[in-house]
UniProtKB/TrEMBL annotation:
Biased composition (Acidic residues): 207-218
Taxonomy, superkingdom: Eukaryota
UniProt keyword Transmembrane helix present: yes
Ranges that cross the membrane: 7-29, 77-98, 110-133
Low complexity composition-biased segments: 252-262
GO cellular component, one term: membrane
Membrane topology (UniProt): Multi-pass membrane protein
Entry keyword annotation includes Membrane: yes
Residues of the Ion transport domain: 5-137
Bias (Basic and acidic residues): 265-275
Protein name: Ion transport domain-containing protein
Coiled coil: 142-169
Length: 275
């Protein structure tokens, strides 16, 4: 609401300048037409002029000039501005029209002067009210569009985060399967190699040596398997650490981007959407 009022203030000020100019022109014309200063002659016993005073006040002060009942007149520029303000607000302005028409024996001049001013003033006030209403409607529409853009951006961010999470899970699963397959193949190849070697030794008839060699080979095989598993485990942990580091960097970049988007004003987001 406060933002809407701030936007309307410059528009009201611009239109107020036009209203002030209209008041100034009509005040100057009114001072020329309806002044009661000497030596201007006018009818002092107008009933509409006395109607602005109470009967007791007229009898008590023995007022003979109806102009004395008026709190403002066209004898000065400020007084004429005050009379026009009364006409603009429609505060008993019909009495003013007939009073000055009777005083100067020219009802036509009075009607043309006051009615034209009243029409222009009402038109300008209605124009200001309509513009303010239109500004309120446009600002409300813009705020709704900005809110919709922010909601869409949040939805897109959540979808991107979910996609990145699914991709990281699939990548980690596939890599783990690949490591297990490589380890199994390597173990089977090593086992087949040891089996063929033992078989060739047995064929040569070296039974005693074959037993010792089997034990030594088994011990070597167990040691080599342990070393192989150890190296594979280190390699797997290193790759997992790389994946975790990559995910952390992606999350940090996304958070920075979200913070940057939040720092942007609704006006900038609305301009981006229009582009």
């Amino acid at each position: 609401m406060f933002q809407k009022i701030i936007i309307c203030v410059p528009i009201v000020i611009k239109l107020s300048v036009i209203i002030v100019i209209i008041f100034y022109i009509y005040s100057a014309i009114g001072v020329e037409l309806f002044t009661t200063l000497k030596p201007i002659e006018y009818n002092k016993t107008g009933l509409y002029g006395f109607s602005m005073c109470s009967t007791k006040y007229v009898q008590k002060n023995k007022i003979k000039d109806s102009t004395q009942c008026n709190y403002a007149d066209f004898n000065s520029f400020l007084g004429s501005m005050l009379v026009l303000l009364q006409v603009c607000t429609a505060a008993g302005w019909s009495n003013i029209v007939f009073d000055y028409g009777y005083k100067f024996d020219s009802l036509l001049n009075s009607i043309l002067f006051f009615n034209s001013f009243h029409f222009i003033a009402v038109f300008m006030l209605s124009l200001i009210g309509g513009i303010i209403w239109e500004v309120f409607t446009v600002v409300e529409k813009i705020m709704e569009d900005i809110q919709a853009v922010e909601e869409q951006q949040e939805l897109l961010n959540s979808i991107e985060q979910q996609q990145q999470l699914l991709q990281s899970i699939n990548f980690e699963t596939n890599q783990n399967k690949y490591i297990d397959i490589v380890y199994t193949i390597a173990f089977l190849e090593k086992k087949n190699y040891n089996y063929l070697r033992r078989f060739s030794i047995q064929k040569k008839g070296e039974d005693d040596d074959s037993e010792e060699s089997d034990e030594s080979e088994e011990s070597k095989e167990s040691k080599e398997q342990l070393q192989f598993k150890y190296h594979l485990g280190i390699e797997r942990e290193f790759k997992l650490q790389q994946q975790q580091t990559m995910l952390n960097k992606m999350t940090q970049n996304k958070n920075n981007q979200n913070n940057q988007n939040q720092c942007e004003t609704p006006k900038d987001l609305f301009i981006k959407k229009k582009k």
